[in-house]
Amino acid sequence: MHSDLPAAAFHILVSLANEDRHGYAIIQDVAARTKGKLKLSPGTLYRTIQRLLEQGLIAELRHRPDPEFDDERRRYYRITAQGVRAARDEAKRLAQMVKLARASGLMPKEA
Amino acid sequence: MHSDLPAAAFHILVSLANEDRHGYAIIQDVAARTKGKLKLSPGTLYRTIQRLLEQGLIAELRHRPDPEFDDERRRYYRITAQGVRAARDEAKRLAQMVKLARASGLMPKEA
DNA sequence: CACACTATATCCACTCTGGATATACTCGAA
DNA sequence: TTCGAGTATATCCAGAGTGGATATAGTGTG
Description:
With about 110 residues, the first copy, chain A, is mainly alpha-helical. The first copy, chain A, is about 50% helix and about 10% strand. The first copy, chain A, has four helices and three strands; from the N terminus they run αβααββα. Chain A has a three-stranded antiparallel beta sheet with strand order 1-3-2. In chain A, α1 (about 5-15) crosses α2 (about 25-35) and α2 (about 25-35) crosses α3. The two termini of chain A are about 25 Å apart. The interface between A and B is medium-sized, with 31 and 31 residues. Chain B binds a DNA duplex (30 and 30 nucleotides) through α1, α2 and α3.
């Protein structure tokens, strides 16, 4: 659809919900959370990060968390209040779709 | 993603889960189920129907349900066993995404 | 020495989508 | 009675989102 949060953006926001991360760490975290089912490609990741920055759903940290033992190439990101709202709205939309499937008998009660 | 069911395809399958319908009726049914939030455009609808037919997720009925009082232009479709499986798998994937959002504290318990 | 891993970034091709357009018939309001 | 809205299907175009390849570059391992 036109107005909803793209899948990659949603997963990135979920990954940043409880911890500031850099791009590569997001790829790994999303893969871990989805048990390897979703491996964000670099093309999708960095393009989506740029879009999220422009839309104000995430912000880049000016100071890296641990300057001593850290790869200088890394760029860290933090979710914004607006990002939290966007992710929550998208989750509600997805929950509605699941509800629709359940109401149609397409889903076993718990799965 | 590459392998998952597009949103329009999912909604069409849900709409056909309990009743055979023709294209235009699907548009109205999806709009009703989503409380007007999702109005499938004709471009999306008829293209997606063609794709679903090719993939064997739906089938066109050879005989229209009620030949007497019916618009002859209508083409009726029925979901296949394969279509049911595809919709169920997609619903599970969506439910997993919602679960991920909840686990991250992005969602209020029930919403 | 080659390969894999870390880390970011850009490019191309493909798919999915909305919206416009086309065709054509029916019905009610002005 | 004519105009617009609704019904019904279909095609086209432009734009967004995605994966995969490619590039660059440093580090670590067999």
